[in-house]
Design brief:
D-amino Acid Aminotransferase, Chain A, domain 2; binds 3-[O-phosphonopyridoxyl]--amino-benzoic acid; 291 residues; D-amino Acid Aminotransferase, Chain A, domain 1; seven-stranded antiparallel beta sheet; alpha+beta
Length: 291
Amino acid sequence: MGLWIYLNGEFVPEEEAKISVFDHGFLYGDGVFEGIRAYHGKVFRLQEHIDRLYDSAKAINLAVPLTKEEMIEVVCETCRRNNLTDAYIRLVISRGKGDLGLDPNKCPQPTIVNIASSITLYPEELYRIGLSVITVPTRRNIPEGVNPRIKSLNYLNNIMAKIEANIAGVPEAVLLNQEGFVAECTGDNIFIVKNGVLKTPAPYLGILEGVTRNAVIELAQKRGIPVQETVLPRYDLFTADECFLTGTAAELIPVTKIDDRVIGNGEPGPIFNQLLEDFRELVKVDGVDIY
Ligand code: PXG
């Protein structure tokens, strides 16, 4: 049973959801996207995802032909058409069909695609034992080039890092920024805990400001846990009491080894466990109703 895909104003069966080989999203990675999740019939922090999508589009000078309200409706309607209450949602806007040249002025009509599918969850045991990760040679894109705050269709920087993690036999890579400070992972933000303080790289260091990241910061503050958005050298990762990653797909996932150094006592820590529990409660109530 195939999916119904939203494509430029229509819902079509997935076999018919096709775009041009002249689409600049395909030719150049010229476009933006969001990865969104629905839990129990609610789309988690949909407004935040839509705001980030429109900011990404603005940053690449791409005018979105739908209002934010219409885009929210597209997301919810795609879930309804596929009878989904729990979903992984991929909303993509590319520059659209042009010619073989770079010029975006030759692309009159952006391509808008929305896919709502079931989620492939990480194995539950990873949440109990934690991930081993490495810092990789590939640095995060510099903000003066393609700013990492733009969730663009060009993920080669992150894919290069993922290849390095694959070669090393670990599931995730930590990218440093141009100055050598910790930025983020290939599709997740990173947090550490040291002496009861929760720390994560500040957005100006060149990261995607994750929706999950921001929710975790709020949850920590509600618990009275001090939070710092700061500069983290690798030393701070190695000597952390706890470390975990956050992202729409992963939610919160513990890291127990970094570059062969065991983090804390090698098990998910108490602050991680508390915040994961709080997050799983939050997703039950914080979201836009689909039905
Ligand atoms: N950093 C980067 C570079 C990302 O791509 C995050 C952080 C986390 O952001 P959110 O808003 O999801 O908390 C992302 C997330 C995947 C996948 O399947 C994830 C992302 C992109 C593509 C695939 O894990 N983005």
